[in-house]
Amino acid sequence: MPLKALKEETAESLTLEWVLHVKNYKLTLDKSKCVGCQICTLACPKEAVRLERHPKIQGEKAQKARVDIDLAKCNFCGICDVSCPYGAINVTVDGKHLLSVLDKQSFPQLVRDIKVDAHKFPLDREKSEDVCPLKLIKVSFLTADGKTVEDLSSLSEPERRRLSVNVEIEKDHCPCCGVCEVKLPDGAIHMRKFLSGKLSINAEKCPDGCTACMDVCPITGALYLSDSDKKVHVNEMFCVYCGACKLACPVDDALELKRTRINHTPVRSGAWNKALERLTSSTEMSKELKTRGSLKARESVKKRVGLKGEKCA
């Protein structure tokens, strides 16, 4: 048992802490990065994470759901940290970002497959950075001797052409929506979603004039209001299937969300199987388990064949 169990909440963060004889566990939720989605609540094996919906006030924008974590249930395993698409949760041990579920290979990492070709970025810092709805792209321009250029207008055209472009993306916080890939020049950024699925809106049940889902969606353009029917529609090219919109919707079955695939590192774990069951549909879970079983059988056959070959030799 911990010597001290602490919980503190401010406007910016929620912090939980265990102080033990030899170790210090800390969980920090960054409220500026949290979008109030469903992922951490579904992934948590202890049901320690709760979401509280804010009632919709007439004439005001909807607010994202509030995340709370029960200190009595949390064991600082780090599954919420690993699972958060936006990197809003950080779990540390003695100040270091060490997650036991990854060390023990009992839970996979989400694969944020992001490739950048800085040569294809335009020489326009503001234009390049503003394409990201979460402001996760930072661009700088360097001279041949490595000096950063702040004011490109002070350079001649030949000098501008000799500049190199440095691109930094906060990958741990990137949900891989793909907005940057579409809005930047072709080939500047390429990414693959780690959450795939299907989001649909029942137009008959969607309340007229309601934009609660759009109000909380962190990805600009994933949801839009149609001029033709004045209803909200989905652009699945940009949707990351986090579920923030579903929690904000005042009509429970007006939005239907199904996650069909999670791109992750290889893992064989009962904890992951249970999380997968909560995060995706049962059909998709059975597909992954079947695929994993087939791969395991194939590896077993290869080993047997290899052993027989060695004996024959």
Mean pLDDT: 89
Number of helices: 10
Q: How are helices and strands ordered from N to C? A: EEEHEEHEHEHEEHEHEEHEEHEHH
Rg on CA atoms, Å: 23 Å
User: Quick one: overall form?
Assistant: globular
Q: Regions with pLDDT < 50 over 5+ consecutive residues?
A: 282-295
The structure class reads alpha+beta
Task: State which percent range the strand residues make up.
Answer: 15-25%
**CATH architecture classification name of the largest domain:** 2-Layer Sandwich
Helix content: 25-40%
The CATH topology of the largest domain corresponds to: Alpha-Beta Plaits
Strand order of the largest sheet: 1-2-3-6
The CATH class designation of the largest domain is Alpha Beta
Terminal Cα span? 58 Å
Q: Give me the count of strands.
A: 15
**Major pleated sheet:** 4 strands, antiparallel
| Domain module count | 3
